[in-house]
Amino acid sequence: MAAHCEITVVDSTAQITEIVDLLLQIQTDPPSIYIDLVGVSLSRHGSISIVTLMVDTRNPRKHIWLLDICTLGALAFDTPGKGDKTIRNILESPEIPEVFFDGIENVQLMENASRDSKHRMGGSRGPVSRKFLHGLAKCIESDLRLSFKEKAAWKLAKDKGEKLFRPERGDTYEVFNTRPLSADIIAYCAGDVRFLPELWYRYWHGLTWDWQNKVKDGAKKRVWESQSADYMPNGSHKALALAGGRGQEYSGARI
């Protein structure tokens, strides 16, 4: 299942210019841009260290770029391509979808909504709960047909990266601001987007039209809530889905 994947650290404006020109040429339906962010206390009061960006056009080759925000700062977003368009323009364009695990094109909510169909395909009967969201690791390990070797390699990269910044182990997220980036951090960041295209296709195409609209509305609601003055970015409430099927309500919200 796995395709060849090239990984590049982007720390110059010349590289940004090339990426902008490429992103403006790729297809938008289905989405081709997959993104993840890492940094220190990610939220309105924190800072982004790395934007991991992958382009997947469903061919055997994928390319992952790690945009070094710590080095480039605003230049990563505001350096134009050959024209006047920038990565900021691309990210803000309603015509160019970008897939995040938990963003507007929200893979996490897609998985939550698809549990009925997964339940039936697995031969199970009875009620299925959508109360809690699944993390990226569970989605990859449970829902993708990867070989044992592929899953083991992905999990190893994930574990080695997490050991470098987990606060409960006395480490710090400042590791994302250490330059040059270590091989373990590069592999960790790449792993967070590596299988997003497969998850997107797996979940999105398993949803009915009605559930696709519910996921879109739910993702927009989560983004809107994140921009409110009283938004709390951390807490147990983040593990709850916005709503469940069959009239169930979670977190006081209904899709």
From TrEMBL:
Organism: Delitschia confertaspora ATCC 74209
Tree of life domain: Eukaryota
Gene3D superfamilies: Ribonuclease H-like superfamily/Ribonuclease H
Designated name of the protein: 3'-5' exonuclease domain-containing protein
Molecular function terms, GO-annotated: nucleic acid binding
InterPro entries found in the cross-reference section: RNaseH-like_sf, RNaseH_sf
PANTHER family: RIBONUCLEASE D (PTHR43040)
